[in-house]
Amino acid sequence: MSGIEQEWADFHSYVERRDVIFYYVGYFSQSIIAAMADAVKLRVEQTGAIAQTRRKLFSSFIEMAQNIVHYSADSYQKEGQGEASMRHGAVFISHTDDRYYLHCANPVNAEIAERLRVKLAHLRSLTMDEIKSAYKETLRSETPADSKGAGLGLLTMARDASAPLDFEFSAPGPDGSSMFTLRATI
Amino acid sequence: MDNLFIAASASSPEVDFRFEERTLSLKGESYPENAAQFWGDIISTLRAFLAHDEVAAPITVNVALAYFNSSSTKMLFSLFDALNEKAEAGTEVILNWYHDEEDDTIFEFGQELKEDFADLVFHDHAVTS
Predict the structure, then answer these.
(1) Which of B108-112's residues contact partners 24+ apart within 8 Å by CB, and which partners?
(2) Cβ–Cβ of A149/B77 closer than 8 Å?
(3) Which tens digit of pLDDT belongs to each residue from A123-154?
C-alpha cells in the first residue's frame, strides 16, 4: 500500500472499529447545522433505523448542535462583528448492537459548566415519568432569563434517550474553561 | 389585514396565514437559529389580527409540522394560547393537527394542546407515510 492509501486504511479501520457513522469537528453555524441535518438523516436511514429512532436521533442531534452554537466558549469572530454566530465543537454518532450513541463536545466557561452540571445531575436522578412531567411543567412555565432554548433542550434530549444522559467536564484550563462532553443513548 | 406568507427554508416551516379566508397553515420543519424571534414576529401578527377581528365566522388552523426543536415548541405553545383566548371569547377555532401515524412525539404534543387549550376544536389527523 502507498503512503496515502495506508493513512486512509488506518483511519477507516479505526472508524469502523468504533462503529462511527457520522463525525464532524469545526465551527457550527445555523447553515452548517441545516446541511449536517440532511446528511445525518440520510446516514441514519441508510443504517436501517426504524422511523421513531430516526426521529429521536434527529431531534437530539439538532438540540446538541444548537447548544454548541449558543454555548460553546470557542467562538469565531470576524473583525468588527459583535456577538459570534459561529462556535467551535464536535459531534459524532456511533451505532453498536442496535443502539445509537450521540456524542458532542465543546469548551464551556466556568459559569455555564456549573449550570450544566447542576441541570444534568438533576436529570440523571429522575425516572422517565418524572422527566416527562418536568417537560410538561417547563413547557408551561416562563422562559428562564439565562436560557436561549427555553430550558427545554436538555429535557427534550433526556426524554428521547433510552438511558440517562452521560456527561463529563475536563479539569479547567488557565482561563477557567473546561471541555464539556455529553452522550445520549438512543 | 394583509396575509402573512413566509416561504419554507431548510430550518423553518412555510407559514401561510390567509386572514381574509380565515385559514392559517403551518407546514414543514422548525429549528431556526432564533426561534423566539422567528415565532415572536408571527405571533405578534396573529395577535394583531385576532384583536381587530370582529367577524364571527370560524377560524381554521392547519398544522403539519414534521419536526420542531425545543425552543420552537415553547413558542408554538404561546401561539396556540393566543388562539385559545380568541376561542374563549366566542369565535370557533378549529385546529387540524397533522402528524405521521408513527410519530408519537408530535401526536403527544397535540394531546398536550388539546388538554391545555380546551376551547379549541381539536382534530387529530394521523397521516400514513
Answers:
(1) B109/B73, B112/A136, B112/A139
(2) no
(3) 999 999 999 999 999 988 876 655 655 479 99
Flag if A156 and B33 touch (Cβ within 8 Å): no
Contact assignment for B102 to A51 by CB distance below 8 Å: yes
Q: Nearest Cβ partner of B70 from A31, A136, A150? A: A150
Give domain A3-185's CATH number out of 3.30.70.270, 1.10.1040.10, 3.30.565.10, 3.30.1360.20: 3.30.565.10
Q: Hey, where are the domains in chain A?
A: 3-185
Task: Write the CB contacts of A24 (distance below 8 Å, at least 6 apart in sequence).
Answer: A36, A90, A91, A92
The structural domains of chain B, with segments of one domain joined by +, span: 4-127
Q: Which CATH superfamily is domain B4-127 in?
A: STAS domain (3.30.750.24)
ipTM: 0.91
Q: Rg of chain A's alpha carbons, rounded to an integer?
A: 18
Beta bridge partners of B27: B14, B64
**Residue B6: partners with Cβ closer than 8 Å, 6 or more residues away:** B12, B14, B15, B42
Give Cβ neighbours of residue A50 (< 8 Å, ≥ 6 apart). Answer: none
Apex CA A156: angle with CA A151 and CA A157, to 5°?
115
Helix (H) or strand (E) holding B105: helix B104-116
Contacts of B100 in chain A (CB under 8 A): 51
Determine whether the interchain pair B31/A155 forms a contact, defined as Cβ–Cβ distance below 8 Å: no
What local confidence, expressed as pLDDT, does residue A150 receive? 47
- Considering the entire predicted model, what is its pTM? 0.91
* Cell numbers standing for residue B58: 370560524
Cell numbers for A104: 458532542
Chain B closest-CA separation from residue A3 CA (Å): 40
